[in-house]
Give the backbone structure.
Amino acid sequence: MKMKAKEDELRKVFQSTVSLCVHSGLMSPERAQSYYRSVLDADLRFALDNRPDDDIVRRCLVYLHKVVNAKGDREKRQMNSQPQSEAATSDPKTTPADGQLFSELCDNFLPGLVTSSQLLVYTITTECDRRHGYTTARRWGYTESLCQQVHADLVGLIDSVDVSETREDSRLVLAREQAEQEELCDIMSRFYDVVRPEEEKVRAYVKQREQQRPLVVTGGPCTGKAVLLAHCAQQIKSWLPDCDPVVITYFCNLTINPHPKHLLSSLCYQIAGRYRSISSSEQNPNDLDGPGCISNLRANSSNCEPTTREPVSDHHFSTIPCPHPTGIIKPDLSEVKERLSSLLSVMPSPKHPLVLILDGLDHIKNNFGPQIIGSLPSPLPPNVKVILAVSSNRTQILQAINSQRSPPNSVSEGGEEESGYVCVPLGSVDRKQCVKMLASLLSSSGRRVTSGQQALVNQALTSCCLPLYARLLHLHTSLWHSDSDVTESSLPDGVHSSISALLDQLEQKHGSPIVARAVSFLTISRTGLTEAELADLLSSDDEVLSEYIQLSESPSYSMRVPQIDVERLLLDLRRFLIRRTVAGLHVLSWVSRHFKLVVLKRYLGTLEARREMHSVMADYFSGRWACGCAKPLLVNQNSSPSKDTTQMDININRQPPNQPFIFNSSSEEVGRVNLRKVLELPHHLQESNKREKLERGLLMSLGFHQAMVRAGLLGDLVAMLEGDEGSSHCRFSRERALIASILKSCACLLQSSPLLLSTLMETSLLPYLEAFPALEGFVRQIRKERKERRSGLGVALCPAPSSVPSVQCLKHDAKTREASVVEVAQAECGIVAEVMDDGTAWFWKGSGCEVLKLSLSCEQKELKFAGVKSSGQFVLLSTQCNKLFLWDVTGPEVFQQLEFEPKSSQEIPKRMEGFVACQKKLFMWWKDQSFVSAYDVYTETMTHFQCQSSVTCLVCSSNGFYMYCGHEEGTVSIFDTNTGGLLSTCSNPNHNAVALMILCEDKKELACVDRTGDVILWDAKTQPPRRVKETFTGDKSNNILNTDHSDEINTLLVCQSHQVTLWDTCDWELWDQFLAPQGRAFSQAVLSQEGHLFLALLDPLVLVWRVSTGECVLSLETNNQPGTLLRTASGVICVAHDGCLTVWDSEAIGAAGAALKMRRGVKEVVVEQTGEWFYTTDGSETVWRWGLDTGLPHAGFLHDGPVEKLRLSPDDIHLVTLSSGDIHVWQTESGQNILRMSGSRATDILITPNSNCGVSVSERQLSRVWKLEQGSIVCSIHLYLSDAQVSPESTFLIGLRSGDLLAASLWSGSISKRFSCVASSEHVVAFQTLSEHPDFVVVMAASGAVYTWKVAEETVCRHFFLPYAFNCQPQVFQMSSNGSFALLSTEDEDIKLLDLSQVRLCSFKAEGPVTKACLDKTGCYAALVSHFNTLEKSCVHARPVLSVVRLADGERIGSVCLCKSPLTLVVCEQRVFVGFEDGSVGVYFILDDGEESVRPRDRLNGQLKQCPFDRAPYSWLPLPTPNITWP
């Protein structure tokens, strides 16, 4: 009571003080009101006042409770009997009573908020007994009900939060980086303590409109270049008062990702965003939100009050469409350069000029600085100013600027004008200003120095007059006293010495271990450290913690470095640390890179020391010692003073935090990415040389991929997978290249819905597990995550892929974009050489390498190339000046010029047709020339062989002794290469030019293929050779386009425009011929690695044929028009016409090509009751029976004609098909065709639920009921009933006729029951029998009326009318077997269902337009296929998405991204069966709070052990003729 009285007294004094302030004019009445508000009032106003309506709707819940007769009679009497309190000392005019304040809040503020924002208000009225009033029991009752309602509403608000609000996309990442750079500029400008005269030069440059060269601020280390530019950036707007400039600063060495592609993409984003903002504000000056605001689309669907007119429950699964995905996957550097150049040319204007300030280009690793400088246009466009800061000793950067921008052969009058930039050298600061700065710093810290000490300071500043040095001197001199004995040696003589002296002082004060480790951690961190992270790292360090163990008598199991010790150390370092924002957190970083240099030299001078520190940080960010995991520590102990020191190993819990990739909440969608781990861990794993953990723990980790995608760093993830970490020497280079390709192809989809990553990767990787066994671990992670989540969609059977993702796509520089390929050659080791029509030559050296340009000079002129050839290990380049250059790819990168010695009176030929390398000799021939030149690589001599006619091809024996020349007239000349003599000749009878010769030395046979594709086999054992065999293809009009011979598989491919021919080179038999599609022509073809497939160019496609079946099974996607196909040892390369290379993995092509699928789109899928076997038809002559245990078709039921209908008996014993008018009855287990009935003229077939009879429905003839096993007719039905169904008790055939519903007896065939709507104009549009309620049929009328019809009693009950928005679509209508749910329609982007169990309508929102929907017969789930909506209209990789929804509560179980368009959709036994348009089938199992219904198959079990191309289903033949014929 005393405390309460004291609080009341203090409140009165405070109120009196406020009143006096108002009376004296020191405070306004409005300001005084804020002091009288309660905490609740202040919090409500802070959270809700002046907020956007959509923000209030998302966060505000309003409950209104009216209490009638709250004060009982007893309480009123007590209040009346109490004496009035004394008047307060405060003025009642300025001091409102509590009741007035509460009334203003409840009667004005909150009602106004509800009205303006149209909030949902819950109102309840409690009427109390007049005698007792609002009792405690009533209060508790209302409180409990209110808590339950608030909890339910809060859960609803949390669940309704859009996914896009809890994730980041690439635009938000770039926006975050922009904010971080702006903050850095503000931080750096605060260190501008000394006015520099160079500022005026920068100002003059900015004001010069005609200047089109960049300004380069040069200077030595620590001269303050970055600080000067940051200060100038803050002043530029005041320098240009007549315009509104756009100023963009970028500290390149302080960015997270300094790669040129990322840096230039960020600049493009900032430039476009700033000018877009200006344009938007000028067009809509009242739009305060600006263009960057993200509106909540749910605001439009909010209602002020619930409606009870219609029984509608709307379960929304809405997703905000993704923003424009520019920058998801960063484009090539050339494309970014073009984008930047375009923005700089178009965006800036005289009213809004652009000033671009770049600092730290000279300190970026990997020589990225010159690349970035080379990306800036030269000369600069009008209204663009570029300011750079470069150290004077970085000559490479300065030369890059000068060489790009200075005109050739320029003659200047002054030294400045001769360069390509305006130079502003930044020297040391005037000593007097540094002295003044130091005095100011000392004064601010309350310190002074004596005159003698000042003399020493002045002397030190004379030798080193730098601002950073002055700041360091302040720290040293602030420790002096007036009587301190200081000498010249008391002050360090430079910046680095001062930093070392600072570290010495800190070690003396705090201890050497903690200082050394703390500054080392700050130095080697990638983005800086938070205070908490630094404390955790110090506690994890054994050397630091051992100091505290020695101070403790009995070390505990759990121990950390005291936080106060860390804060004391940071307090002493505060003047040299900056606190900046990185990834949403405040981190500490050094103010100058020279602190890093000193720390590295002092504490981390060896590679082992640096790796040790990086290893500690990698362990911390990986969470190795988190979650109570104790870390061992070796400590010294003395048992007694007289005994020696002993070492003891103890385990201590350092209590570091857990480091998951994603901090998950109760909802999967609402999770926060651990950006600190994402940014730091890869860096430290790489620097600590833990490559195995880097690959397995990160780059092959599902969690890391999920975190990167959800953080908007998909482009960075792809770059890591494809970058230096993913080069060919790494263990999982092939697997990572495949994953990167899949991520790139689905970038738009993943940005819109990153939660689809797991299922997308599972469906994309499963077809390639046999070719990439290392990916099984990645797939296991996906399944483990789904199992732990206990919900989702899994893949039971992956559909056969229609395409194969490329593992590498390579482009040339933008300067060669207009050029096209003249010639391509491929050498050993997978090296590819290209010659362009602009005379340039480009080389690609294999996986993990870029396309490099070859530059050769002769007589100080760069050579232009005309062609390239290859043979074995040699590449031979020809130039436009008729020079030849040879490169042995197995040796060093040295090109040897061949001195060509022509024959007498013979000119040097201009075009080399080819060469063959054999035993270090090159045998070359030229177009339209009748001689062969042999060049000896060792002796560098050349000899010539004269032939009778033009040489067209050449082959040599393996020992190089014999040379066989094919000629234009069809003859073959045989030479002895040692003597040069002609041994013999032989001639083809058709006299066609020889296109190819294949020498089989084992059999002494020579095969010649002429230009028309005919093959002649010669016996080379005799001289002259004897003709053994001739094979003619018959077509003489089409010449050969190319050939491909494989010794390993004894196969020769011959490609002509109209066909591809395969030869068996063992016996030289024509194997097969493949015709080009009608109206199309082949341009090239190559064999696959194993010969089971061949790839062919049909402009503009790359198609893959399966040799065994002749089917086109794959289509390979290229970004450019394909020109040439090359087959390497491990892959297939497509060289586009513009020189771009697309690479596919050979094993991936083989795995995809071996996958079985039907020849056409799957039209029907029927499933057995167990769900383990199912049947598919594509409208061809075959029905396949599939088994989920193997994932392969087990058998094929063959027919004589196309299969039109497919039905399975409910007992799974019989399969009934309709083909060419005949009805076939098959036994499912044996595959025997027991019945083949003709004469039915059926259009549909049905099977009764008891599996005894079949019904053939005919439109124009009699419909018949017949015994399923014997085929005998039971009865005939004369009327045609459309959409017919058999009643659950197998007694009636129910169908539509003329708008009525008729029931025909299956025993007599007569129409015994009829359902007609009450209104004569109304008709039935849909109906459904119910297996669990066999007496009833649910009927849907055109008016929306819903009936139930009891067939046996012919009674009808009309239940209700559907609203117009929920009208039934007959082609979509389905019902569950228990009648609980009915699927009504799939209009627009949602599906509408009728919940008959609760008599309500439900609408389930999809990601886009719904194309397919299906109900589970049990009424538990609904499956739907929709096309994902993205704002990227040009995305060609848009994919349909399969989603499964639990009908009981509207919860989405999971979604799977489908690889192609589906034609059929069936849900059975918690499995979803999907038939696709390309003939493949996919099966997905539903995991819903239980165990997986389908366990993953062992890929090596049973049938999967054999060669994939040998897997073929058994063929079950039909009866040759019908065994039953109906009249």
